[in-house]
Amino acid sequence: MKMLRNLLWAGIVTLFCCDIGKAQIIYSNAFNGGAGVSIYRHVPSSSTNFAGGTSSAWWNVLSNSATSFLHTDGTVGTSLSSFLLPFTPRSGYVYTLTASVTVPVMTAGKWITLGFAEYNPFVNTAIDSRFGSTAISGNPWTYLTEGSGGDFFFPTRATSTANATLMPSTGTYTVQLILDTTATQWTASEFVNGTQIGTTYTYSPNPNITAVGIGQTTLTSSTGIVWNYLTLAATGTGRTNIVNATVSFSPANAGQPLNPAFGGLSYEKMQMVANYFSSNNVPLVKLYSLLGPTVLRIGGGTVDTTGWNGISNTIAITTSQVDALAGFIKALPGNVSVIYGINLLSNTPASAAAEATYAANALGTNLFGFEIGNEPEFGFSAYSSFLARWRPLAAAITNAVPGWAITNGGNGWTLDDADAGQGQLSAYTDPFAANESGVVSLLTQHYYVAGGGSSSDVMQLLLQPDPFLFQLTTNIVGAAKGHCPLGARITECGSYSSGGTLGVSDVYGTALWSLDYMLTVAANGGQGVNFHGGGRSPYSPLVDNGTTVTAVGPEFYGIKMLSLIPPGNVIPATITLGSSINFTAYGVRQTNGTISALLNNKEVDSTVAVSVNLGSGVTGAQLIQLTSPNLYCTNAYTLGGSSIYTDGTWTGGVQQVLSATNGQLTVTVPPISAFLLNPIITSTNLVYSLNGNQLTLSWPANYTGWLLQSNSTGLGNANWFTVPGSSNTNQVQVTIQPGRTNVFYRLSLH
To answer: Which of 45, 78, 367, 688 has a C-alpha 20 to 30 A away from that of 128?
Structure first.
């Protein structure tokens, strides 16, 4: 019996074998389309957000072979493959997956499959793409039919409950899988035409499922195999676990300043060639305007395939393209600056200086700095070779551009690192910061969680803690210290490299990941991140067709949510959980001492009841929520109660005001959602009493930490001073001095 990789088969039953009550359809697909039309990227006949499905689902095909296909008429190819819809089951439901299939007598060792899958990776992920890949080291979880005479039910990777000869001849069969999640431990069973295969299986632990669909081995011939229809339905009301959590912030931790322009986007320089960045691109102007202060990085791999006026047979970058970029930036409100990339591999000092001079004049104060090249480890065999190439270009730019950081006390335009990839810290980044101390003002780096199309392309990897990101950030921040006055920034990043991964990089769960990514970098001293994108790449924060934004990606939602946090210092959170779940929290302490808290619940079934204190004197909190029906939605998610639309429209904002007692409140964070709590402070009155020449001023005890201030030159004068000793009490006694009049007192939080 041939083993299949990474199947999660939850059992099969037929429609007439059991009463599933008034089931609600999650997905249904009638295979009645045209012959020869691949189902890849097609949407099912119907889909909903109910019970773990998503209304934005489409069929993914886990192979790139010309003979690995499922056509819209239900016919299949001869090569191994899987055809999946995104799906994550929720507790408290009975799921029924039903399919009708017409089969011939199968050749020994050949089989077709129906079931639930643990992974839903990108096309062409590995050699064996049947419901996953060999590299993940999974075992088969079920076979639907085998020519050797048995239908095998594998409810786990290695456990079979039995097999039966249920498909002995050519015919049409109704196959069902029943997955019951109503109890603490889930169960699964399998039926074909009403006959159960083996016994009902009880899971411990419950399986991980991210997709549902059809699969097959390499077939000698696919003639006669036709899928007729597929449905996934559920009954039940759902069951959510309640996990209690306490989130606290140490008053002794000063934290790291959150750069107001922390969140940004990164684009290939080729985007300039088509004049994508233009003041006439009104929707793009509106979308960027939603982010407030931000940094746009222009560079990427195509920075070395383009050149000023087409030098060295490169694609030409022209004055009109630079002017269009500058016009776009100047059409934006707020502080938006540009990291401008210049060719390293095939450039000359004179050409580099000419382009830098023109860009500096066009962008003016919106120029953040220049970046020469991109990921030099791919263009040079050694660091020394790279440095020898980089230095003449940098010197030419330094001498040509007025207001340069070296000659302007570090207050002018800055030179950035030629960004190194995540594996090049010790080889390129660290020595570069030291060697070019005083020349490079901002140290930059790239980091993707994993390679696009790799065996690790799963949402679960994104949503787990990332110790390497912590290590990388602390490394580059440390390397920049004492050498690069503007610190360190990750100027190209994303979920998965090489354009990202369909079904992962472009779905809602990545928005939750992006919040963890940004705040991990910020909490460890990083000055910002730029999510890379452009074109139709799955990882693009803004997807475009070359001229127009066609979709707002999940990372854009993350950047927008971060921009809604008031300025302050990022401080780590101490989290105490009632049980082990995937929940993170971060704080930003504002100058007045109050704290904004971001609570990120990445669990599918667990609601987190969070007790948190936002600081002394806080009487309430504004709640802004990021939410979606499903981790795998490609739209339908909202921030502040509204989606962000491609025309730049966003009508979201504060959704609720929660009351707090001296900063303390409890909030319930639903599954797969992030909450931003911004503190509200209500002023209070001073109470006074007089005993002889002793004036006693007091205020409520829960306003301890507020400052008593005084002046004697009028209410409108700025010469207020803090009364000594008032910062740690709620009562101060003042001796009235004879002859002094017009003395005023007030409470202030800072």
So the answer is: 45
Q: Which of 7, 166, 191, 201 is nearest to 97 (CA)?
A: 191
CB of 638 closer than 8 Å to CB of 615: no
The residues near 685 (Cβ < 8 Å, ≥ 6 apart) are 699
Tokens of 432: 């570069």
Helix axes 467-480, 509-523, angle to 10 degrees: 40
pLDDT digits (tens, 9 = 90+) for 73-113: 999 988 888 888 999 899 999 999 999 999 887 776 677 88
- Residue 403's φ and ψ, nearest 5 degrees, are 80, 20
How many whole angstroms separate alpha carbon 309 and alpha carbon 301?
A: 18
Strands, E assignment, 408-487: 414-416, 440-450
d(CA 728, CA 726): 6
Q: Which residue bears the tokens 């360190």?
A: 488
Q: Are 276 and 544 in contact (CB under 8 A)?
A: yes
Cβ neighbours of residue 598 closer than 8 Å, sequence gap 6 or more:
515, 519, 561, 565, 585, 586, 587, 588, 674, 675, 676, 677
Instruction: Give the model's confidence band at 523: pLDDT under 50 very low, under 70 low, under 90 confident, else very high.
Output: very high
The 3-state DSSP class for residue 460 equals: helix
Tokens of 587: 């704080």
Yes or no: say if 339 and 418 are a contact pair by the CB < 8 Å rule: no
**Residues making up the chain, counted from first to last:** 750
Q: Please answer whether residues 198 and 191 qualify as being in contact, where contact means their C-beta atoms are separated by less than 8 angstroms.
A: no
Burial classification of residue 475, based on how many CB atoms lie within 10 Å of its CB (0-12 exposed, 13-18 middle, 19 or more buried): middle
pLDDT at 226: 93
For residue 454, the number of C-alpha atoms closer than 13 Å in the C-beta half-sphere is 12
Q: Give the range with max mean pLDDT: 221-230, 329-338, 607-616, 705-714.
A: 607-616
Say how far residue 713 (Cα) sits from the centre of its chain.
Answer: 53
Tokens encoding 252: 């002794």
Question: Tokens at residue 97, please?
Answer: 């997956």
**CB neighbourhood size of 495 (10 A):** 28
CA distances from residue 675 to 290, 505, 563, 596, 672 in whole angstroms, order as listed: 19, 22, 14, 10, 10
531: closest CA among 644, 441, 448, 415?
448
Q: C-alpha distances in angstroms, 400 versus 363, 364, 367, 387? A: 15, 15, 15, 20
- Position 492, amino acid: E
367 contacts 342 by C-beta, under 8 angstroms: no
Q: Helices 554-563 and 509-523 meet at what angle, rounded to 10?
A: 40
Sheet holding 7-8, edge to edge: 7-8, 112-117, 211-216, 81-86, 60-61
Strands 440-450 and 488-496, by their bridges, are parallel
Q: CA nearest 61: which of 35, 88, 44, 42?
A: 42
- Pairwise CA distance, residues 268 & 285, whole Å: 18
Q: What is the DSSP letter of 8?
A: E
What is the average pLDDT score of the chain?
85
Q: Which amino acid is at 446?
A: H
